[in-house]
Amino acid sequence: MPAGGRNMLKFAPFTTLLLLILAPSLLAEKSKCDVCKDMTKHFMEHFNKTKGHNFGGGNTAWEEKSLGTYATSETRLVEIQEKTAKKCDYKCGSLLEDQEEFLEEWFFKRQDKTDLFEELCVDHLKRCCLENRWGTDCKECPGGVVSPCSGKGRCLGEGSRDVDKQAGTCQCNNGYNGTLCDSCRDRYVRVGEDCEECSKLCKSQKCTAPGPKGCVECRMGYEMLEETGCTDINECEREGMGCGDPLENCVNSAGSYECVCKKDYKRVDGKCQLEDLYASEDEEDEPTEGAETKEIESKDEGDGKLPDEGSEEGDDFESDDYEEVIEPEKSGDVEPKISVDDSINYSETEASGKDEL
Ligand SMILES: *[C@@H]1O[C@H](CO)[C@@H](O)[C@H](O)[C@H]1NC(C)=O
Ligand SMILES: *[C@@H]1O[C@H](CO)[C@@H](O)[C@H](O)[C@H]1NC(C)=O
Ligand SMILES: *[C@@H]1O[C@H](CO)[C@@H](O)[C@H](O)[C@H]1NC(C)=O
């Protein structure tokens, strides 16, 4: 058994203990409104299930006459109450018992007229609010009950009379900002009703439209082209750029490039020199990282790191987070296998506009 498996077994009793301690406190977190909501939900489930049922043997005229119709019969109520009690946890069960009279009254007199949840949990017990209302007085959520938070966020504490300090405020979806979620966050741009993320190829991710064409300015190592927007500069093919040493191969990468020593050459004191074949024998398997490669640092925003175009980092991307660098093959011994086309592969995905940048 691997060490990890043994550790897990060792800790299993502890985890179980932890769960036993935590479980009741997790249940305790259920708000009074949630308890009432649960109870009425279970009750209504069984109410719905028994709709159209009869006394079992088929409603004979005799049964109807002596017992009343099944729909409003004691028999049906008892059945619903029993099934609800089975589904209920402790608090839900107590509430079911406490509200027995209220439930009876609703069942016999108003089952076709009012909504049980609304009547019991909202109006009678005052534990809940109707949808998109919050707090002791069931105030409307920001932006109104029809489309609170501009439809771009969640109204916290909605539906409950419990008040915590965030209740009645909007928690905006990714990319949205403002008390009504009606503005776009930094690095997002408005497109109709929505906010879309600026391309990661934009400098400081300011843009006028999504995609690399919408950038106000391009990141270091990229240039604005009419057709594709911000596009990687192939420094290796630019005059006056790339690598000067004829013993080096120039390897372009997204936003940058590298100078790699040609086959049989190694970087010593910054220069490519013919390798000592004897010395290289034991080094061959583990070439020292960076020893043969001279990396050209991008001066943009200090870190010189660039987004990996293939990655879908999604929503919580921050511009300071460029951690994935497209690394060309780092070996002075072998001719780099990366072709220029491979390393600028991203531009296709960018141009398609479907990427997450
Ligand atoms: C019961 O039925 C009504 C109407 O058919 C429906 O709106 C409601 O969601 C159902 N409730 C449950 C808990 O199944
Ligand atoms: C959200 O808006 C506030 C005020 O309008 C602003 O100070 C803040 O920087 C914005 N946040 C983001 C992430 O855009
Ligand atoms: C381009 O990138 C895609 C996904 O990022 C990959 O599947 C494909 O093989 C790449 N094409 C080339 C020519 O490298």
Structure summarized in a few sentences:
The chain has helices at 3-28, 32-49, 61-67, 74-87, 90-98, 100-110, 116-124, 277-283, 340-343, 346-352, and strands spanning 133-134, 139-140, 153-155, 170-172, 176-177, 183-184, 188-191, 194-197, 222-225, 229-232, 248-253, 256-261, 265-268, 271-274, 293-295.
Task: Compile the SSE list and pairings.
Elements: H1 3-28, H2 32-49, H3 61-67, H4 74-87, H5 90-98, H6 100-110, H7 116-124, E1 133-134, E2 139-140, E3 153-155, E4 170-172, E5 176-177, E6 183-184, E7 188-191, E8 194-197, E9 222-225, E10 229-232, E11 248-253, E12 256-261, E13 265-268, E14 271-274, H8 277-283, E15 293-295, H9 340-343, H10 346-352
Antiparallel strand pairs: 1-2, 3-4, 5-6, 7-8, 9-10, 11-12, 12-15, 13-14
This protein binds 2-acetamido-2-deoxy-beta-D-glucopyranose (3 copies).
One 2-acetamido-2-deoxy-beta-D-glucopyranose binds at residues 177-178, 185-186.
Provide an overview of this structure:
There is one protein chain. The protein has about 350 residues and is an alpha+beta fold. Among the domains are: about 30-125, no CATH class; about 135-175, no CATH class. It is built from ten helices and 15 strands. The chain has helices at about 5-30, 30-50, 60-65, 75-85, 90-100, 100-110, 115-125, 275-285, 340-345, 345-350, and strands at about 135, 140, 155, 170, 175, 185, 190, 195, 220-225, 230, 250-255, 255-260, 265-270, 270-275, 295. The strands form seven sheets. A three-stranded antiparallel β-sheet has the order 11-12-15, with no helix packed on it. The chain has a two-stranded antiparallel sheet with strand order 1-2. It has a two-stranded antiparallel ribbon with strand order 3-4. One 2-acetamido-2-deoxy-beta-D-glucopyranose (NAG) binds next to helix 2.
